[in-house]
Design goal:
136 residues, mainly beta, Immunoglobulin-like, 6-stranded antiparallel sheet, 13 strands, 0% helix, globular, Endosialidase
Length: 136
């Protein structure tokens, strides 16, 4: 998997790829239209953040590169890469329970908070690409 040189791009079947964890300086792309939504990404080596129509969708500390990020009614699926282990926050439905899978292995059920945010840690150092799936 490679970083997303253009910061944000559309993929097939409603998926997107975004982020560049190799950048030394902050970069952002605003008003990227995809599927009728306006997306905004900010990214560099210490943080990657995605918003859709002004609402929070994804944030990682440190920065990550995300490929094939796809939202459905039942959750989110994406592939992530980074140089270091990352703390990832995902915007989902408020106070809802989800099962989280890392490389198709369940790490258990987690609930979102009142604001719909779900926090998880992903071991990325030396791992290459890691698949994350969050399902109701």
């Amino acid at each position: 998997m490679a970083v997303v040189e253009e910061l944000l791009r559309s993929e097939g079947e409603g998926a997107i790829s975004f982020g560049n964890h190799k950048l030394e300086k902050k970069a952002k792309l605003e008003d990227f239209e995809c599927g009728g939504d306006l997306l905004k990404v900010k990214t560099y080596k210490t943080m990657t953040k995605l918003e859709k129509n002004g609402m929070f969708v994804y944030e990682s500390v440190p920065g990550t590169s995300v490929n094939d990020f796809k939202e459905t009614q039942d959750g989110i699926n994406f592939n992530v890469e980074g140089d270091e282990d990352a703390q990832i926050t995902i915007g989902l439905q408020d106070e809802t329970e989800y099962e989280v899978f890392i490389n198709n292995e369940s790490i258990g059920k987690m609930s979102t908070n009142l604001g719909g945010k779900l926090n998880l840690s992903v071991e990325l150092a030396g791992a290459g690409e890691v698949n994350v799936r969050v399902a109701k």
